[in-house]
Specification:
The structure holds 2 protein chains of 2 kinds. By secondary structure, chain A is an alpha+beta fold. Chain A has helices at 14-29, 34-55, 107-114, and strands spanning 3-10, 63-70, 74-80, 117-122, 128-135. The radius of gyration of chain A is 14 Å and the shape is globular. Chain B has one domain: STAS domain (Transcription Regulator spoIIAA). Classes of the chains: A alpha+beta, B alpha/beta.
């Protein structure tokens, strides 16, 4: 039977660390390995940072919601913001030579690199949800 | 405890910054930015970042490395990287930034490259 746990955080920078500490503890309790935890840690940091900065734009009245599920296939994680949303296909490729020296824009690349599946959808009631899966 | 400690030493006309801790969104990235700005303000524009003690870096930290690199270049200086951990090397490879940064495993080789 799958297990699910949820964490709600205010939209501030400190929430990035808090979410990572939370995710690591949960994943460890569920028996995942150190290498696995490293990928989860990076993915939750990048997704929560995006939700705080670009989604909720540091509005502490808006929460970031992290849901982790220990599923048959592996660890599923969703991160929801309450922002205006975006089209992921319009995010510039940071590895394109013309973008290499840009300061921002690498978080999604990291999430895609370290998780097996990553997808975005608009949430009912507003905001974006990023869904990620790291297979066992 | 601070996310990162940055200590400075001089090797000839090259300033070496030894970073110890995390370069992540918030404090770690800001500390690096401030250190680079201060050095440039002092006219020190040959900078070697020793990342051997950096146990963790995120996309914000990688962005700060890029920002440091361009800020130093703009001042006519050179910023190079020393002692990348495997994790940082992996992230720089994924982002294709290994093609941008001059990276060294040996401090002696790194310092010699400035002359």
């Amino acid at each position: 039977m799958s297990k699910t746990i949820e964490l709600k955080l205010p939209s501030r920078i400190e929430s990035v660390d808090e979410s990572a500490v939370f995710a690591e503890k949960v994943a460890r309790d569920w028996g995942y390995t150190d290498e696995f935890l490293s990928a989860i840690d990076l993915a939750v940091r990048e997704s929560v940072a995006n939700a705080v900065k670009h989604g909720n734009k540091f509005d502490e009245e808006k929460q970031v919601e992290v849901v982790m599920t220990d599923a048959a296939e592996g660890l599923e994680m969703t991160v929801r913001d309450h922002g205006e949303g975006f089209d992921v296909d319009e995010i510039p490729d940071p590895t394109n030579p013309e973008n290499l020296l840009k300061v921002n824009g690498r978080g999604i690349l990291f999430m895609r690199s370290f998780m097996d599946e990553v997808g975005w959808e608009r949430a009912m009631g507003g905001g974006m949800i990023v869904k990620m899966l790291k297979k066992r | 405890m601070a996310d990162i400690n940055i200590s400075e030493r001089q090797a000839g006309d090259v300033t070496v910054l030894d970073l110890d801790g995390k370069v992540t969104i918030g404090e770690g990235s800001v500390a690096l930015r401030n250190a680079i700005r201060r050095l440039l303000g002092e006219g020190k524009n040959k900078i070697l970042l020793n990342l051997g003690g950096v146990g963790y870096i995120d996309s914000s930290g990688i962005g700060e490395l890029v920002s440091s690199y361009t800020a130093v270049n703009k001042e006519g200086g050179v910023l190079k990287l020393l002692n990348l951990t495997q994790k940082i090397q992996d992230l720089l490879a994924i982002t294709k930034l290994l093609t941008v940064f001059d990276v060294y495993d040996s401090e002696a080789d790194a310092l010699a490259s400035y002359s």
